[in-house]
Write a structure and sequence with these properties.
alpha/beta; 7-stranded mixed β-sheet; 3-stranded mixed β-sheet; 10 strands
């Protein structure tokens, strides 16, 4: 297997079905799949049991005790059978060449970073109902979609060098060895965002890694849902404290 794909999920089985169906259309199929669930939802378990998987698959769960995505991700990192780890969310449908580019450009000391287009409710619903829909023609005239420029695949994008300033937790990949060097994800983050991407970014850069862009190569379509967003002051305060101390090897990570 060339990589392990880690999908973070929480209860939404309709979105996950659309993601898994898009995975079946990938040009690169030589992967292991880990479904990393921050909870133990019975409906999710039933769906996974009934779905026809074509890849080696692990379903990891943990008690639903609030936001503990970082802990779930660390457990997936430990369980992975490959060195190259690709991280996505369970509501992000993949372009057919998404996995291919994350695999082709893998390299120690590198974090591969892509972006995503955010679909509106109508187009998201259509995507979940139609397994073979070609999304990009609809993006031209569908209002309410955001970051539409990220929706278009271009094989020349490797040379166009559209840079990425920061990691996005739903579209990134890296070497497990590099991730282990900073002790994985910091489980002190108990609110969404920051801990699953920006925190990893600055700590890996401090350890000598660099970001390489996959914009318009590893294309991803984010399905609409109501935002369950929290203010970032608490996360960023903790992150800034760690940066000030240059503690890029977290204490509450894979190894406690």
């Amino acid at each position: 297997m060339k990589a392990t794909l880690i999908i973070s999920v929480y209860k939404d089985t309709r979105a996950l079905r659309a993601v898994l169906d898009s995975l079946k259309r990938q040009t690169e199929q030589d992967i292991e799949l880990i479904i990393s669930e921050d909870g133990e939802d019975a409906q999710m378990a039933a769906f996974i049991k009934s779905y026809s998987f074509t890849w080696p698959m692990q379903h990891l769960t943990q008690p639903d005790e609030g936001w503990r995505k970082e802990r779930a991700l660390n457990r997936a990192v430990v369980a992975a059978k490959n060195d190259w780890l690709i991280f996505i969310d369970g509501d992000c449908v993949l372009h057919p060449r998404f996995i291919e580019w994350h695999v082709r450009l893998q390299q120690r000391g590198v974090m591969l970073a892509g972006k995503r287009v955010k679909l509106n409710p109508a187009l998201s619903e259509r995507c979940m109902q139609d397994k073979k829909i070609c999304l990009w023609p609809y993006l031209v005239w569908h209002r309410g979609c955001r970051y539409v420029e990220e929706a278009f695949y271009c094989g020349l994008a490797k040379w166009l060098r559209r840079s990425v300033k920061h990691l996005l937790g739903s579209n990134m990949s890296m070497s497990r060895a590099d991730l282990m060097a900073i002790n994985g994800f910091d489980e002190n983050y108990t609110l969404p965002a920051t801990g699953e991407d920006y925190d990893i970014e600055w700590r890996m850069i401090a350890c000598g890694a660099k970001i390489v862009s996959l914009r318009n190569l590893a294309v991803q379509y984010h399905l609409y849902h109501k935002e369950n967003w929290h203010e970032q002051e608490e996360n960023m305060r903790y992150c800034c404290e760690q940066q000030a101390k240059n503690e890029y090897i977290c204490k509450n990570g894979i190894n406690k």
